[in-house]
Amino acid sequence: MRKNILLPVFLIVILILAITSCNSGEKVILTVSAASSLVDAINEINVLYLRGRQNITILMNFDGSGTLEKQIENGAPVDLFISASEIQMDNLQDKNLIIKETRENLLSNKIVLIVPRSNNLGLEDFTDLTKDSVKKIAIGDPRSVPAGMYAKQVFDYFGIVGVLSPKLVFTGNVRQVLTYVESENVDAGIVFFSDVIARMNNGKVKIIATAPDEINNKIVYPVALVASTNKFKPARDYENFLLSNEAGIIFQKYGFIVLTE
After folding, report:
1. Residues 6 or more apart from 74 whose CB is under 8 A from it?
2. H or E stretch including 190?
3. What is d(CA 68, CA 145) in angstroms, rounded to the nearest whole number?
4. CA-atom Rg of the chain in angstroms
5. Does domain 111-216 have CATH number 3.40.190.10?
6. Which residue of 45, 143, 226, 253 lies most exposed, with the fewest beta carbons within 10 A?
7. Could you tell me which of 33, 35, 57, 61 has the C-alpha nearest to residue 46?
8. Is 254 helix (H, G, I), strand (E, B) or coil?
């Protein structure tokens, strides 16, 4: 008789604990790896997303997309990946390291040629980089940095790769290119338009040319959950917020082209 009374009481206690746990909100830490060109926009979006979500912490890892891809391939504990190129996401998908069903095309961008504000070399286009007066040109390493890969495509488009090769200074991510140009350590650099927008107020660089549409139309920032995540629901919720109109307004503010409208 006593066992029959205790069993329902035990079940009620379990139910109360479950409800309390749900209401209190379990602490969740999301690790997000994102291309360096996203740093300003994503940081602002995260402030908006975390309002009213006291149980969520987001750890951001910004770097070149190729570097981030290798980290995921080597087992880094990442929940969500945003690449500045489809190539890195394709590589992970081919190895079943992302959840294919969660993959979405998030953004596009433009490649631009920038020089220090004080530059007096008379540069007006990409082909002017072949001038003898231009000694150093910073680009992201094409093997791991999408902006560098697109820069190489621009050089191929204009047939100037051979002339420019001795002048190129490679960096580990696109923001390092911006820093090199700002500090006048190079004569020019190639970055995403969004990178310049993020630093527009400091007045240290200026855009002198935009890559042809044949190049810019290829630029896609895909987002997906990493296959090893054990936080599918909160990671998916965060991804959906990145795809929302609220986040889209912020992305546009920083010069990105939203693909999810």
Report:
1. none
2. strand 188-192
3. 10
4. 23
5. yes
6. 143
7. 57
8. coil
- Indicate the domain borders of the chain: 2-108+220-258, 111-216
What does the alpha-carbon distance between residue 188 and residue 119 come to, in Å, rounded to a whole number? Answer: 9
Residue with structure tokens 């790896």?
A: 33
Asked if the domains 2-108+220-258 and 111-216 are classified in one and the same CATH topology, the answer is yes
- The CA-based angle 186-180-41, given to 5 degrees, is 140
Strand pairing partners for 221?
107
pTM: 0.85
CA distances from 146 to 46, 87, 218 (A): 24, 9, 11
CA distance 158 to 40: 31
Q: Report DSSP state, residue 172.
A: S
How far is the CA of 103 from the CAs of 5, 28, 151, 211, 225, in angstroms? 51, 22, 26, 27, 7
Per-residue pLDDT of the chain (261 residues; tens, 9 = 90+): 444 444 444 333 333 333 333 334 689 999 999 999 999 999 999 999 999 899 999 999 999 999 999 999 999 999 999 999 999 999 999 999 999 999 999 999 999 999 998 888 889 999 999 999 999 999 999 999 999 999 999 999 999 999 999 999 999 999 999 999 999 999 999 999 999 987 765 778 999 999 999 999 999 999 999 999 999 999 999 999 999 999 999 999 999 999 975
Architecture of the 2-108+220-258 domain: 3-Layer(aba) Sandwich (3.40)
- What is the Cα–Cα distance from 115 to 111, expressed in whole angstroms? 13
